[in-house]
Amino acid sequence: MTPRLFLTAVSLQARKLMSYRVAFWATAIIAFAAELVVAVFLWRAIFEASGEESIGGFTYGGMLLYYVCALLTAKLVYGRERDLSVSEDIYQGHLTRYLIYPVSYGVFKYAEHLGSMVPSLVQVLLFAGAAGFILPLPSDLGITPATVAMALVSILVAGLFVFALRFTVQLVSFWADNVWSLNVMLRFSMEFLGGLMLPLSLFPEVVRQVLAATPFPYIFYVPVTTLLGRVSVAEWLRGLVVTSAWIVVVVLVARWVWARGNRVYSGVGI
Amino acid sequence: MITVDRLSKTFWIHRKEPGLWGSVKSLVRRRREAKHAVREISFRVDEGEVVGLIGANGAGKTTLVKMLSGIVHPSSGDARVLGHQPWRRADALRRQISLIMGQKAQLWWDLPAADCFLLLREIYRIPRPDFERRLAELTALLEVEDELNVQVRRLSLGERMKMELVAALLHAPRCVFLDEPTIGLDLAAQRAIRDFILDYRRRHQPAMLVTSHYMDDIERLCERILVLRRGRLVYDGSRRAVVERFARSKVVTVHYRGTPTAAALERLERVGRRLHPDGSDAATLRLETPRERVAEAAAAAMELLDVADLSIEEEPLGQVVERLQRARGAQEEEALEEDSLEHELPGDGSVEGDVR
């Protein structure tokens, strides 16, 4: 796949998503606002009930800042299309076009995934600005140009890992009629163990040590804490190495599953 | 260009009994059944040849096309398209073939056709001057220049199919698979697409394999036909030969003036079966006449009616093929019967000539 084709696929996907204006704004605003409102009420109640100044290393304002950053990171890591539509391509036979064209399906889908991150980036910038005005965030955010750059690299690597993992799970559609439940389980695991639902600093130390060997903390928790200046350069690099190693493992599994799945693909829906 | 050697495909399908109990049972144990979609088919197609693939629903046409275009892996046998095994999906092969499916959009639904074509230019790495020349040529021939910037899902079925054709031919493929290219289209669109395919063939000489339920497609496009029945190839040969061999009658159409007498009509019906005239034109008589009595029927019409025009046509290809398939079916059943009576294997049931 040539770089030009890759960029064309990225740009087409971005344009396609932005052409659905109502869906683009309405769903994004509602989802972001709803998730943030839940976090605000929940953490206000917890801080009031406990009487503590700081929980898991976060003040109330710091906790809200964590949530804003985590939710926006998730928008970038997931891209706009949350399900990648790999299983849909297999069920409905859209996969056929990618088998006929001289392209790699996985690489093409990844280009589309990157394309779906572009409109998300626009929304992230706007939502971050809005949240800064509305919420009682701490005066010192801890965010510097260097942490932004480091966090963006972490997000890009986390995005590739999440893409590879979801892609592989959805390839199960070659055999199973419905992978929806697998998708839900995967998403729950990533969001719970990855630090989107709760900062991982709230987990017991032993659990955190086990998690450090898995790719999960590097999906949301590490990119967000990197952005907030809570991660050293050495830790940040370690995260990139661990995630990259997991990407290699998942890609190898994906290739194996793909080769086998192709043998049973019948191009149904045609 | 295309060689197929004893190619077979068996699908395994799960059977589930109806109702709630059936669903519960299927949780524990599911019945698997083999469906032989294509059985030991062999043939070859040369450069510039347009071959029609005919058969009832479920005969194996689409599965065969899917194997030859590399979408589906065969269960056994071999095939080469431009020297490659298609299901290995070498880029060198995929740059030279095309698949057009009337029942399935391949273009990206949410994009305007023009954007899809730009993406295809990158996918096939078509040099810009070639791309622009071909795009202008193809869209002009199919009269869709004005629809290029409309999202594909907003196009009419006919327009979408034309865009699919443009997309499939932009890279000037040497081998084209067309699966029901005119399905669901009105007569004018069907004709436009057929003319276009003929024109493309004349200029580029690709090998083409066409499946269609519309015999008009096959008659206009293909000199040679392959007839499939239950996954087996039962005929491979010229379209004319099958008509000569299996057509029993011709249709004599008479346009006449005035009102014929009942006696005249009765006499004419003795030489042929009267078909109901097409449309509302009452002054037309169509007689399905045995081939040996065509001259007699024409003479009787001239004598008994005030004839304005008279034409003699072959029996519709669809009927002829149906008869061929029935004949093959009877042979198969006969062979099975003999097998069970004499406990001998019946061979492949071949008969002499083109019919397998």
Commentary on this structure:
The complex is a heterodimer of chains A (270) and B (356). Helix content of chain A is 72%, strand content 1%. Chain A has helices at residues 3-18, 21-50, 60-78, 86-92, 95-100, 105-134, 145-170, 180-193, 205-212, 221-227, 233-264; strands spanning 54-55, 58-59. In chain A, strand 1 (54-55) and strand 2 (58-59) form a beta hairpin. In chain A, helix 3 packs across helix 7. In chain B, helix 10 packs antiparallel against helix 11. Chain B contains twelve helices and 13 strands. Chain B is an alpha/beta fold and 356 residues long. The longest helix of chain B has 26 residues, at 317-342. Chain B starts with a strand and ends in a 14-residue tail after the last helix.
Topology:
The complex is a heterodimer of chains A (270) and B (356).
Chain A: H1 3-18, H2 21-50, E1 54-55, E2 58-59, H3 60-78, H4 86-92, H5 95-100, H6 105-134, H7 145-170, H8 180-193, H9 205-212, H10 221-227, H11 233-264
Antiparallel strand pairs in A: 1-2
Helix pairs in contact in A: 1-6, 2-3, 3-6, 3-7, 3-10, 7-10, 7-11
Chain B: E1 2-15, H1 19-28, E2 31-45, E3 50-54, H2 61-68, E4 76-81, H3 91-94, E5 97-101, H4 113-124, H5 128-141, H6 157-169, E6 175-179, H7 187-204, E7 207-211, H8 215-221, E8 224-229, E9 232-238, H9 239-246, E10 249-257, H10 262-271, E11 273-275, E12 284-290, H11 294-304, E13 306-314, H12 317-342
Parallel strand pairs in B: 3-7, 3-8, 5-6, 6-7
Antiparallel strand pairs in B: 1-2, 1-4, 8-9, 10-12, 10-13, 11-12
Helix pairs in contact in B: 10-11
Termini Cα gap of chain B: 22 Å
Share in β-strands of chain B? 25-35%
Radius of gyration of chain A: 20 Å
As a percent range, the share of helical residues of chain B equals 25-40%
Low-confidence stretches of chain A: none
How are the strands of the biggest sheet of chain A laid out side by side? 1-2
Largest interface: A-B, 24 and 31 residues
Order of helices and strands of chain A: HHEEHHHHHHHHH
Number of strands of chain A: 2
What value does the average pLDDT of chain A take? 88
Largest sheet of chain A: 2 strands, antiparallel
**SSE arrangement of chain B, N to C:** EHEEHEHEHHHEHEHEEHEHEEHEH
Number of strands of chain B: 13
Please work out how many helical segments of chain B DSSP would assign.
12
Low-confidence stretches of chain B: 339-356
Widest beta sheet: strand line-up of chain B: 5-6-7-3-8-9
- Structural class of chain A, please? mainly alpha
In round numbers, the mean pLDDT of chain B is 83
